[in-house]
Amino acid sequence: MNVIDVNASVSYPVVVGGCLLKDTGEYIRRFVPAAVKAAVITDDTVDGLYGDTVRESVRRAGLDVCTFVLPHGEASKNGENYLRILSFLAAEHITRSDAIAALGGGVAGDIAGFAAATYLRGIGIVQIPTTLLAQVDSSVGGKTAIDLPEGKNLAGAFYQPALVLCDTGTLDTLPEEVFIDGCAEAIKYGILGDEKLFEHLKEKGPGFDREYVISRCIESKRDLVMQDEFDRGRRRLLNLGHTTAHAAEKLSDYSLSHGRAVAMGIASVARAAAADGTCSADCAARIVDALRRFGLPDRFGYPFGDMYRVMLCDKKIRGNVISLVVPEEIGRCVIRKCTLEEMKSFFSPAFR
Ligand SMILES: NC(=O)c1ccc[n+]([C@@H]2O[C@H](COP(=O)([O-])OP(=O)(O)OC[C@H]3O[C@@H](n4cnc5c(N)ncnc54)[C@H](O)[C@@H]3O)[C@@H](O)[C@H]2O)c1
Ligand SMILES: [Zn+2]
């Protein structure tokens, strides 16, 4: 078991270990000490797999428990379900000193997090991520959100949890493709700041040491969040591969998964960086090899012109300027501000 302390505007531990769910109740008692009731927010798949373990543990710790179950999938992360959750919390007489437990992937974590940030102007939330993506990324750092019909993650809040419990055993039931999606984000952390992590992933592939990899990813994210909680500077490094990935996801009408799109995005920015001399050809080749080790794709199936048109609508564009995260070597990336024209010429060699 490993405990990683996050000291953002709020301090909280992230616990990473193999068998944590059965102790959820004790953890809630320790980290939300005034709680007399916990509201579990989860999806139907995860509820069937882990809901009982969590509820039994909460009851054993002497707390009341109630559960709100979402249909699984991104479509649930909407305004209607957000309001239904708030009404559910009110009907269950959840008070400001009680706790929410978000049990599931990034969808449950994001919508429950936003509900926790806003219900009674904020109540304690324990994040219990059960996908690799949620463990290495979405559960830590305090970004919460719902999607609007106009786009993804358009309403939300920065709201840090009271505790994060990453039970690595829950990954055993994850469908292979969902697991591999999360691996693209883990490789991202290696490229951003940790060559040893990168080499471990490249060598071991999907059989990597979970506690080590998840802990290192969380530590990297923690370091960036502590320097830049509100995403105005260095936290943007986490967007490595994401500008083009978001464009491809949109072009595919979201049939392309986020992790696969990120893998293609990372490979293209690495090829483009090698073409303009920011990183070596060897560095780009190692990045592509690592992605392939996981069976992740490394080329977009769209012409750059189509992607560019979609990128023009990226919410991260300020005026005519966009920030790109570019690798210099494995373990070191920079944020480069460029005009849209410069971005176009930077990426074009990667799409030949
Ligand atoms: N807040 C942030 O900082 C942040 C960062 C990255 C992504 N996100 C958000 O995260 C979401 C994606 O998260 P996700 O990929 O975890 O998706 P998800 O929550 O939809 O989970 C993927 C699928 O896996 C199933 N599942 C979850 N845990 C399981 C388990 N242990 N065993 C079997 N099945 C399981 C779920 O039911 C679901 O069908 C997106 O909405 C994205 O916007 C947020
Ligand atoms: Zn991502």
- Identify every distinct bound molecule in the structure, by name, code or SMILES: nicotinamide-adenine-dinucleotide, zinc ion
- Note the overall shape: globular
| Main beta-sheet annotation | 7 strands, mixed
CATH superfamily of the largest domain, by name, is: Dehydroquinate synthase-like - alpha domain
Rg is 20 Å
* SS summary, helix count: 13
Question: Could you say how many structural domains there are in total?
Answer: 2
CATH architecture of the largest domain: Up-down Bundle
Poorly predicted parts: none
The end-to-end span amounts to: 46 Å
**Element-by-element helix/strand order:** EEHEHEHEHEHEEEHHHHHHHEEH
- Give the CATH class of the largest domain: Mainly Alpha
How much helix is in the residues? 40-55%
Regarding quaternary structure, how should these chains be classified? Answer: single chain
Task: Give the spatial strand order of the biggest sheet.
Answer: 1-2-9-6-5-3-4
β-strand number: 11
Q: Mean pLDDT, rounded to whole units?
A: 96
CATH topology annotation of the largest domain: Dehydroquinate synthase-like, alpha domain
What class would the helix/strand composition place it in? alpha/beta
Proportion in β-strands: 15-25%
